[in-house]
Amino acid sequence: MKRLIADSGSTKTDWALTDDGRLLARVATQGINPVHQDGNTIADVLRQELLPQLDDQTAIDEVCFYGSGVRTDLETLMVQLLERHFPGARIEAHSDLLGAALAVCGRREGVACILGTGANSCLFDGRHIVSNTPPLGYVLGDEGSGAVLGRRFLNALLRGRLPETLRQAFAEETGMDYGDIIARVYRQPLANRWLASLSTFIHSHIDVEGVRELVTENFRDFLRLQVAPYGRRDLPVGAVGSIAWFYRDELAQAAHTEGFVLGTVVRSPMDGLLKTLNETK
């Protein structure tokens, strides 16, 4: 049976085509998010970017799509859009959070987290998401995310809680002063993505006094405010996303301090999705 699996974010979608569990191809298209894109835009991505990379879409028996923005009320829309391009195939469309849970927990009970530009988490029973603490976005919440990490870093940097040499290094590398930073955050779009992009600078200066502690505290807040409410410290906490992956040592330290056991941590959920779906379907 040929199965097409998708892991989609707002920027990029990774696709994997398998045949009875054997990987045939991995391709990529731009991101698909039904919250931010209408049906025609998504159809154009499928028709113009995905289908030309597949030899024969009519031979695909099943499509499993996991994506950001695929809320319960938008699952039907995604299924309908995929059905038009893969006639006769069995179609599933679910949230990226369920994809993350399958990737890091398999079919076992656990807590699954997404730690990238934003942050999210869920309690997973091995098949379904049974509880989800609202992440609230980077203004009201999103503790543990790259956006909040960038925000906390700038707060500490501009208020003098980090060494002056680090502030000088930041100014030299980015060419930005106080006024530029304020303008970028408050007067330009997608401030959350820009704040998260500062993770590259932060990671390269992780050994500077105060930086590692700032990263660890961001994760501790995430565990306290988003994961602890599940009341399941007996379960492993797995995570996907670039922030989880590049700061996995700090995440492990935060988990230990807060009394959690860190489970599987991966940058991208696709390998875990392939393993879980091919073992259980």
Question: Would you kindly provide a written description of the structure presented here, covering whatever features stand out?
Answer:
The longest helix has 17 residues, at 211-227. Strands 3-2-1-4-5 form a five-stranded mixed β-sheet, sandwiched between helices. Strands 8-7-6-9-10 form a five-stranded mixed β-sheet, with helices on both faces. The radius of gyration is 20 Å and the shape is globular. The chain has 13 helices and ten strands. It is of the alpha/beta class. It folds into two domains: 2-88, ATPase, nucleotide binding domain (Nucleotidyltransferase, domain 5, 2-Layer Sandwich); 104-267, ATPase, nucleotide binding domain (Nucleotidyltransferase, domain 5, 2-Layer Sandwich). The termini are close together. Strand 7 and strand 8 form a beta hairpin. Helix content is 46%, strand content 22%. The mean pLDDT is 93.
Spell out the blueprint of helices and strands.
Layout: E1 2-8, E2 12-19, E3 22-30, H1 39-50, E4 62-67, H2 75-85, E5 90-95, H3 96-105, E6 110-115, E7 119-124, E8 129-131, H4 137-140, H5 146-158, H6 164-174, H7 178-187, H8 191-197, H9 199-204, H10 211-227, E9 236-240, H11 242-246, H12 248-258, E10 261-266, H13 270-280
Parallel strand pairs: 1-4, 4-5, 6-9, 9-10
Antiparallel strand pairs: 1-2, 2-3, 6-7, 7-8
Helix pairs in contact: 1-2, 3-13, 5-8, 5-10, 10-12
